[in-house]
Structures are given as structure tokens and as C-alpha cells.
Amino acid sequence: MQYLEIVAKIHHRSAEEIYPILCDFDSYPNNSQAVHSITNQVLSDRRTVSTWEVDFRGGVMSWTEEDLFDPSNYTISFNQIEGDVEHFCGQWKAQNQKDGCLILFLAEFDMGIPSLSQILDPIAIQALQENITAIIRGLFGEEVEFLPVKVSSLETQAPDKLAVA
Q1: What residues make up the domain containing 129?
Q2: Considering the entire predicted model, what is its pTM?
Q3: Does residue 165 fall inside a structural domain?
Q4: Contact 162, 58 (CB under 8 A)
Q5: CATH number of the domain bearing residue 107
Q6: Over 50: is that where the pLDDT of 97 sits?
Q7: DSSP states of 40-83 as a string?
Q8: For residue 164, is it within any domain?
Q9: Per-residue b or e along 8-31, where b marks 16 or more CB atoms closer than 10 Å to that residue's CB
Q10: Model confidence over 8-58: pLDDT tens digits?
């Protein structure tokens, strides 16, 4: 199982401004070439099921996830229901900072092919990082400052590294 954390800072914007933009999945394909399509099924004010098709090394990766929106904490939690990988879950978070807002993308995933994990995991990490960076830059422009990316294997971490509701 792999863990990826991407943090971007947007100066002079608040979580109150950023969060609704993050929640507007329908705008992602218009703002990032990495996202081919997203379809949403609204289940309630705070819960959707979305199906994604994104770039993956010259091909397309697709999955369906359940999305839980928590506007009071500026978070979107997601958990894959079905798709091209064995396991994929995580969160988007917006956090107010002194002079702007941080956007955090936290994810854990398992490609589901243990015998090829040493080959596939680095490719998947790079593709996910490129796609999320492209989405954030597409949504918020060149004013985004990316902080160092954190990548780790959850087998070497505490078991509850990423708690997703």
C-alpha cells in the first residue's frame, strides 16, 4: 500500500473561497487535460458517487468512488467502490493559513499486483502526482506554490496513516 501527500499553497485566498472550487468535480475536465471525464450521481447534500476517467501513462484509468463532503471542515473524503486499482481512498482538504490557503491531497492506494509492485507503484505515484498537480494548477492557475511531495509505503508506517470516513 502506498501513501501520497501533495500540498499546494495559494496566497491571498481563503479555504472558504477554495473549497467550493475543489467540490465542483464537473469543472475538472474543463480545467485539466489530465481528467477526461467525471460523472456524478448526487445521493445527498454531502454524498455523491462519481466515476472518473483520467490519464495514465498514455492510456486511461477509470474508477468509481463515493465522495463525502464536509463543508464545515473544508474536506472531501473519497473511497473507491470499483475500478482499475485494488484500493484507492483519500481526502482533499483546504486549510486557512496566515497569508493564504493550503490544499492538501492525501491518498493511499494499492495497484493490486504484488509481484509487480516495485515496477508499478513508482509509475502510479508519478502519474497520480502529475494528475493532481495538473488539476490544482488548472483550477487555481499559476499562483499555486507546491510544497515537497511526501510518498511512503504504508507497510512501513503506522497502520492508520490515513483515516477516511
Answers
A1: 2-156
A2: 0.87
A3: no
A4: no
A5: 3.30.530.20
A6: yes
A7: EEEEETTEEEEEEEEEETTEEEEEEEEEEEETTTTEEEEEEEEE
A8: no
A9: bbbeebebeebbeebbebebbbeb
A10: 999 999 999 999 999 999 999 999 999 999 999 999 989 999 999 998 888
